[in-house]
Design a protein that fits this description.
215 residues, alpha/beta, 53% helix
């Protein structure tokens, strides 16, 4: 049974990461090259403890993938491994439930340190960013994170579709449910987010989860 998944679209990086993780995690490390494949692997492998997630892999939009996995698999510990070192993005990633944020520029021993810290129950950030990130996330980010936690996995999917500009009929087709079910989900989403309409909900979702300069 796999303990970890590396989700990144660069095969050479996945291979290097997998080799580096052999010491702390053994050989039980799976791989996914896009977000759809990651979701399939997570559904099949219920014993996964750790996820190494790239922000810019195909199918993942900014911090949406992080929040989607946190919503559906709250027991999986997520380490963001990204070339994006934008401090605002890192701060929001941690607010939205990442256990660690490791720049791709970091040496592999630093990644092992991050893994050990996360497995010990701690969060982790590289030392050179700790001072910059010492102030807490904005109240807005923390508030949005707490509201997202109130959504069911299906409601989260509906909200993501709303943010993509889909109508209720289109969302119902995408999720293979009745349109009346989608309407009920939308009402619940608006109530939980504290907004008046679906446009507001989509804009907030998009703005809070975007990650400029993804790489």
């Amino acid at each position: 049974m796999a303990r970890a998944i590396i989700a990144d679209d660069h095969p050479l990086f996945r291979a290097a990461l997998k080799q580096a993780l052999a010491a702390p995690l053994g050989s039980d490390v799976l791989e996914a090259e896009n977000f759809s494949e990651l979701q399939t692997v997570l559904a099949q492998e219920r014993q996964v403890e750790l996820l190494f997630l790239d922000l810019n892999m195909p199918g993942n939009k900014g911090l949406t993938g992080l929040t989607a996995i946190r919503n559906q698999y709250p027991d999986v510990l997520i380490l963001i491994v990204s070339a994006n070192e934008n401090t605002d993005v890192i701060r929001r990633a941690m607010a939205f439930g990442a256990s660690a944020y490791v720049p791709k520029s970091a040496p592999l021993p630093m990644l092992i340190t991050a893994v050990e810290a996360v497995l010990a129950g701690d969060s982790w950030l590289p030392e050179h960013l700790q001072d910059e990130l010492s102030r807490p996330p904005s109240a807005e980010s923390q508030d949005f994170a707490s509201k997202l936690e109130q959504l069911t996995p299906q409601q989260f999917k509906v909200l993501a579709c709303i943010a993509d500009g889909l109508l209720n009929k289109q969302i119902a087709y995408e999720l293979d449910v009745q349109e009346t079910t989608i309407k009920q989900h939308v009402s619940a989403i608006l109530r939980k987010l504290g907004v008046y309409n679906r446009t507001q909900a989509g804009v907030i979702f998009h703005d809070m989860l975007k990650a400029e300069n993804d790489a």
